[in-house]
């Protein structure tokens, strides 16, 4: 009897599956028509040797000073962003430079959080796994910042 009740929805519910397991893939976003779609303003903060900390973004209006503002679209790849950062950062132009990308966004408590999302090489000898990832693939939301660590 108890077994039959569980099968019919009675009893204790099963726990949800772990994140990423048995979940349908997210639908691929439609490509952006860059001729007709207005770009978004992406605030990019660069730092040599590592990412900025959560505390560096704690006070609104007192973000790190090394800011670059880029107009782009949500379908921009990390490779495109790497090339744009190289235009303004001498350190990123080094032949062996590695760029690590992180999103900076407000968490549920309103504090800024830094989450690493991918890495590229300044001058790759071969295609890197993260080169073709887009901002929308990585769940970028308009208003997030991009923190770029240059190693």
UniProtKB/TrEMBL annotation:
<dbReference type="InterPro" id="IPR017250">
    <property type="entry name" value="Hist_deAcase_cplx_SAP18"/>
</dbReference>
<dbReference type="Pfam" id="PF06487">
    <property type="entry name" value="SAP18"/>
</dbReference>
<feature type="compositionally biased region" description="Basic and acidic residues">
    <location>
        <begin position="27"/>
        <end position="37"/>
    </location>
</feature>
<dbReference type="InterPro" id="IPR010516">
    <property type="entry name" value="SAP18"/>
</dbReference>
<comment type="function">
    <text>Involved in the tethering of the SIN3 complex to core histone proteins.</text>
</comment>
<dbReference type="GO" id="GO:0005634">
    <property type="term" value="C:nucleus"/>
</dbReference>
<keyword id="KW-0678">Repressor</keyword>
<protein>
    <recommendedName>
        <fullName>Histone deacetylase complex subunit SAP18</fullName>
    </recommendedName>
</protein>
<keyword id="KW-0804">Transcription</keyword>
<dbReference type="GO" id="GO:0003714">
    <property type="term" value="F:transcription corepressor activity"/>
</dbReference>
<keyword id="KW-0805">Transcription regulation</keyword>
<comment type="similarity">
    <text>Belongs to the SAP18 family.</text>
</comment>
<feature type="region of interest" description="Disordered">
    <location>
        <begin position="1"/>
        <end position="37"/>
    </location>
</feature>
